[in-house]
Amino acid sequence: MIGARVFCISTTARQRSSIFFFPKIPTRPVFRLLSPATKSIVAMSTTSKSQEELDSIFKQKRLVRSTVRKSLKAMDPSLRTQQDESIQNTVLEAPWFKSCKRLCAYISCKSLNEVDTSKILSEILQHPDSNTQKKLYVPWVEDKNSNMRMLHISHMEDLIANSMNILEPAPVDAQGNEREDVLQADEPIDLFILPGLAFDRCGRRLGRGGGYYDTFLKRYQDRAKEKDWRYPLMVALSYSPQILEDGSIPVTPNDVLIDALVTPSGVVPITPRAIESM
């Protein structure tokens, strides 16, 4: 769940050959108790010090992104196809997916080397009138300032290519009606299927640097608190080269943690809630 405490799970089935190692990075400053005489000096230096620490974290993030992008680009196409199939089948067969009624999911982009979601989306949208019907919301990028909305779609034909050739819904449907925004919906979301560039088994997620998902998820957190809703299950999809050593992904207070990770080898539950439901 958003803002949840994360417990690192020791997984004996890990395949170390598929995990990338980076030096563990401290991301939270340690403060000592200060005497009154020094408090004023520290107050003047705290802002610049905090900014220096954030700059260091952002620099480390750029380094990790660069390394993972190279690994993804070097993936064998047949291996990528195999992992796409395995990951999507795991999601489609999972009880937590089958039981969800409303979900937000990303639309995969091949040029970004994201785990494919086309099979998952097609499965959802092919059964609009069945007992297994799910209400699906997908991303629509509002501007270049990290503002993104999740809009309801009913058919794959609702998607159009934007200026970056990424599929997304038009804000208005064919009849001229505005699409339902998940932040204005009357019912809570059960599940988020999230993309990312790198992950670890402690729930850390590294995005591509735009801040769109973290910003949106914070807004949904506020909406859920306002409505007293249970937080949705946060599940990310990951190729094997995207899984890094625990603690090697630098984080800031604005980064949202995930509950579980779906890999080519299966599901990695992280939070107590995910362990209970998976």
From TrEMBL:
Cofactor(s) this protein requires: Mg(2+)
Organism (species): Arabidopsis suecica (Swedish thale-cress)
Coiled-coil residues: none
Family membership noted in the UniProt record: Belongs to the 5-formyltetrahydrofolate cyclo-ligase family.
Protein name: 5-formyltetrahydrofolate cyclo-ligase
Top-level lineage group: Eukaryota
Enzyme Commission identifier(s): 6.3.3.2
Gene Ontology terms: biological process: folic acid-containing compound biosynthetic process; tetrahydrofolate interconversion
Alphabetized UniProt keyword annotations: ATP-binding, Magnesium, Metal-binding, Nucleotide-binding
Reactions it catalyzes: (6S)-5-formyl-5,6,7,8-tetrahydrofolate + ATP = (6R)-5,10-methenyltetrahydrofolate + ADP + phosphate
InterPro entries referenced in this protein's UniProt entry, alphabetically: FTHF_cligase
GO terms for MF: 5-formyltetrahydrofolate cyclo-ligase activity; ATP binding; metal ion binding
One GO CC term on file: mitochondrion
